[in-house]
Amino acid sequence: MKALLHKLPILFEQTSSTARPLVLLLLRLWLANVFFRSGLTKLDDWDTTLLLFTEEYHVPLLPPAMAAVMGTFGETVFSSLLVAGLFGRFAAAGLFVVNLMAVISYPGLTDITRQYHYYWGMLLLVLFAFGPGGLSLDRLWQRWHHKGRTPY
Fold first, then answer.
1. What residues contact residue 82 under an 8 Å CB cut-off, 6+ apart?
2. What is the pLDDT of residues 78-111, one digit of tens each?
3. pTM of the shown model
4. Number of Cβ atoms within 10 Å of the Cβ of 22
5. What are the extents of the domains in the chain?
6. Span 58-77, pLDDT tens digits
């Protein structure tokens, strides 16, 4: 029994090390889907998007049209980077700011929808803290850069 208790932490560490890249990939894909779909909705009807940013969303310090462009850009580009795991921490930080602006600028959020934004924000902070993981272009670049040769 004592030997088993001694080996248990080692087993947990090995298991978590093996699972970590997959968990971070799943987080990236899930979060990217949330934000990318939102960005596509904005692109689908740009006139309505501009109207919403003029009448509903009150982004501080930015004119509505600029806020609409920046928000849509952030949702589509940062989420695409997140999927690839390219500039992963930068993408997570960018989406965190987009999410924060949504919480600050849209007074129509209910308590339930605000909780979703808090949840997404916390998950983005996890990706910012831990990076995109082993299944990412960032990791491929790191391996190539540190070995000083091509990645294939």
1. 28, 31, 32, 88, 91, 92, 95, 127, 132
2. 999 999 999 999 999 999 999 999 999 999 999 9
3. 0.90
4. 12
5. 29-40+73-147
6. 999 999 999 999 999 999 99
